[in-house]
Amino acid sequence: MKCIWFVLLVEVMSVVDSHRPLTNRGSFDLYLASNNAKTMAEIPYRMCMPKAPDYVHATARPSNPSLPHKFNVAILEIKKLSFIVEIERVDQATGWDRILATVDWSSYIGNGTVYRNLILWFPDGADRRRMNRNTASESCIDNGGRLVDIVDKAMYDVVYNYCRQTIVFGSDEYVRIWLGSSYNPATDTVTQSNGKPGYHGDWWPGAPFTISGYEGYTGLELEIRPPSYTGTNHGIFNFYPTSDISVVQLCSTNLM
């Protein structure tokens, strides 16, 4: 497959160079049959990529929805023009006769990490800017994403470890990021930006602040320490969402 869309390719390359995630998605139909529960297949993107994606997620299903087949898909190899998968039938532990199947996929190119099909990335891991939560949100939107909502302990660990390994701390003892979720001091509840309950844990020592005088502390920040730090002064805390603080802003976007 030859990439002849020069103008489009130049635009794509500029997105990659600017640290803004490049996502693509597609579907591919192919005939599958196997004598056992697993088989392998190579899935072409059928589009031009500036390089091999950093991450690919795929699912498989019968093209005819009346068929009972259920599949799991494991990515074995990611290449520039295609990716190789292992497709396992999970509704029964045996093979199947030839059927037409559809593989739905999404890919990601960029400097970030993926958690449960959510891309997390820093537009610039060394850029310190004074922002309140609204301006931080606008910054992520301008870069094609949104502020990060932490949903549980597992996601917190991924976010925190990615931040401390990626941020350029320099001489700074800590770095903060704004989160998308909000905190209600009156009810002691965390709410994600989509209205669902958020993660209520891994608080900075003494937080959340709920006593009289802290009613306006409804924004949430995450304080990150360098990998060499062994103390306990890190984690989530609530603060005025309208306060301008120095942050290195983390953004997120959906992969699928």
How would you describe what is shown here?
This protein has helices at residues 6-17, 133-142, 153-166, and strands at residues 22-34, 38-44, 55-62, 71-78, 82-89, 96-109, 112-115, 118-121, 129-131, 175-184, 189-191, 219-224, 235-239, 245-247, 251-254. With 256 residues, the protein is mainly beta. The strands form five sheets. It has a four-stranded antiparallel beta sheet. β7 and β8 form a beta hairpin. The longest helix is centred in the middle third of the chain and has 14 residues, at 153-166. It starts with 5 loop residues before the first helix and ends with a strand. Residues 4-18 have low confidence and may be disordered.
Secondary structure blueprint with pairings:
Layout lengths: L5 H12 L4 E13 L3 E7 L10 E8 L8 E8 L3 E8 L6 E14 L2 E4 L2 E4 L7 E3 L1 H10 L10 H14 L8 E10 L4 E3 L27 E6 L10 E5 L5 E3 L3 E4 L2
Antiparallel strand pairs: 1-6, 2-5, 3-6, 4-5, 7-8, 8-15, 9-14, 10-11, 10-12, 12-13
Looking at this protein, list some descriptive labels.
single chain; 256 residues; mainly beta; 4-stranded antiparallel beta sheet; 14% helix
Largest sheet: 4 strands, antiparallel
Calculate the terminal CA-CA distance, rounded to whole Å.
Answer: 25 Å
Q: Give the radius of gyration.
A: 22 Å
Report the average pLDDT across residues: 90
| SSE run | HEEEEEEEEEHHEEEEEE
Q: Looking at the chains present, what oligomeric state does this protein adopt?
A: single chain
Give the low-confidence spans.
4-18
Total strands: 15
Which structural class should the secondary elements be placed in?
Answer: mainly beta
Adjacency order of strands in the biggest sheet: 11-10-12-13
Overall 3D shape: elongated
Question: What portion of residues is helical?
Answer: 10-25%
Number of helices: 3
Give the amount of beta strand, in percent.
35-45%
